[in-house]
Amino acid sequence: MILLDVTLRDGGYLNQFNFKYDSIHEILLHLENTNVDYVELGYYKGPASGGEGLGVTANINLDVLEYFKELFPKIKFVIMLHPKNVSIEELEVLSNKPIDLIRVCITEASLDQGLEYVKRLKRMNHKVSANFTRATWIDPHIIASYMKQAENNGADIVYFADSNGSMYPDKVAEYVKTILQYVNIPVGFHPHNNLNLALANSITAIQHGAKYVDSSLNGLGKGGGNLETEIFISYLERTNQNQKFDLLKAFEGKDYIIKEFSYSSDYLLNLLFGIKDYSMDYMKVVTKECESNNFSVKDYIYHNNIKGCS
Amino acid sequence: MILLDVTLRDGGYLNQFNFKYDSIHEILLHLENTNVDYVELGYYKGPASGGEGLGVTANINLDVLEYFKELFPKIKFVIMLHPKNVSIEELEVLSNKPIDLIRVCITEASLDQGLEYVKRLKRMNHKVSANFTRATWIDPHIIASYMKQAENNGADIVYFADSNGSMYPDKVAEYVKTILQYVNIPVGFHPHNNLNLALANSITAIQHGAKYVDSSLNGLGKGGGNLETEIFISYLERTNQNQKFDLLKAFEGKDYIIKEFSYSSDYLLNLLFGIKDYSMDYMKVVTKECESNNFSVKDYIYHNNIKGCS
């Protein structure tokens, strides 16, 4: 079981990626103490919506990366990138940088480009993960066939993301089982917690053969948040599967996040988006549509299906 | 699937059962709007530790019960009792009262007495549930054999409680499957949320054949809290199993609870008790022992096994 912490990357959606350097330092310290396997430092060249006007973990400076690697030599660092934000030639600057894993985001629409990026990064001797987003909008057999192509292009890991926070255990089991019929490389799962199912889904993923799980301190992350690193460790502890993680150190990290980053999100709205399997990217569109029609947003979403969101 | 709300009974551990009558009224209104199947109004004659100095839902006055039944005729009311707090003759005063279900708490030590109470209440034509507490401390086959005896004594339902908040899905599955090999009456599950597994455990219980699940608004309840009524409904909603509950009304109830009842509990301490399968009743003993020895309570519990707690 390999735990990949995404506090600095996915948590960035809550503060426009504006982490101060000493906050990054402190978070890395907590994660090193907790002994998580991988730490995602941020995006390279921006999230899906681009990097304009965003803070430091939206576009990791490679000198900064080297600086933190020197300070935390034991941490395995991860960066995530969207092919549309980086030309394939630009990938060359990542050569010989202390990056232990590069994750390439791939949607159905960007499949061919994504596969090219995987191939190129692999030729540069990087460890590469092909991360398929919005898995619920793609049939499990289709996504598994894409993953097989990623494997053939050299991917070391394939991930599927519950981007809308709408998965439930049976659904996760269906995806993992199907994917494992197609690929021989390790499978990873990126949960979201809109339905309070991030833990249940991650347990199910692992029990069906997934090897990697993403989590963040206190669940800091987009929309309904992520799986809480410390909660997942407590499950491993309870079931005698914890061989390396330090639960109390993870809780120190959680306490730091609670103290420093108090973002309020609309719990019920995120939950309703999870129930409807709507992308969180449409949250503004939906709430605007409701408001302009004088609908109560939550009543409207609960009782209707809104076109274009799923 | 039958949802039994325990906000007023289990939530009472957080305010010494001191609910004001207009709070009870408002909570019942939210629960009626949500359309939960059963509402537990409180204990009759006190919780396990007795009822001295406790508030109204620690010992429901039968006139009060009749008053609320008149106000909310659609609600099915439940009371819970511990045999050691009520003599078997006293049960007669419950005759012809508007009680839709009586739950008798049974431990291994009180088995024979508990079975007698089940038999007596059944003879009085009550609907009766035999509720076995601290299930993790009793082997599943043993607890199932006790439940078979309860069935033979007339019980309509048998429950097992994750009193220590220490169960995880595989464990819940083991209990439900074993119990169903022994009994033919419906099985219920009372979760706690110390390990953030109340939802995962309840889903597992239902999928393996349990029919009743206990929950409370906002999870209001002892120690790590209960399964959140509104979260369980959202799961049913997402998986197209919700035929009767109103999610938005449940959230109105949750909001009321958040507004009126802000009790802080030590999240990590409850979680550590769940990991260790310690009874929450020993929390004071354990923290005192650690403090008198100048141990850091959490470090000590995490790294040691404390005798007498499990």
Molecular structure report:
- With 310 residues, chain A is an alpha/beta fold.
- Chain A has 2 domains: 2-260, TIM Barrel, CATH 3.20.20.70; 267-303, no CATH class.
- In chain A, 42% of the residues lie in helices and 13% in strands.
- The first copy, chain A, has 12 helices and 8 strands.
- An 8-stranded parallel beta barrel of chain A has the order 1-2-3-4-5-6-7-8, surrounded by 4 helices.
- In chain A, strand 7, helix 7 (198-207) and strand 8 form a beta-alpha-beta unit.
- In chain A, helix 5 runs parallel beside helix 6 and helix 6 packs parallel to helix 7 (198-207).
- The longest helix of chain A is centred in the N-terminal third of the chain and has 14 residues, at 21-34.
- The mean pLDDT of chain A is 94.
- Chains A and B meet through helix 7, helix 8, helix 9, helix 10 and helix 12 of A and helix 7, helix 8, helix 9, helix 10 and helix 12 of B.
Shape of chain A: globular
Order of SSEs of chain A: EHHEHEEHEHEHEHEHHHHH
The CATH class of the largest domain in chain A? Alpha Beta
The CATH architecture of the largest domain in chain A can be named as Alpha-Beta Barrel
Structural class of chain A: alpha/beta
Number of strands of chain A: 8
Largest sheet of chain A: 8 strands, parallel, barrel
Distance between the termini of chain A: 32 Å
CATH superfamily of the largest domain in chain A: Aldolase class I
Count helical runs of chain A. Answer: 12
- Taking strands numbered 1, 2, ... along the chain, how are they ordered across the largest sheet of chain A? 1-2-3-4-5-6-7-8
**How many domains, in number, for the residues of chain A?**
2
Oligomer: homodimer
Approximate helicity band of chain A: 40-55%
Strand content of chain A: 5-15%
Radius of gyration of chain A: 19 Å
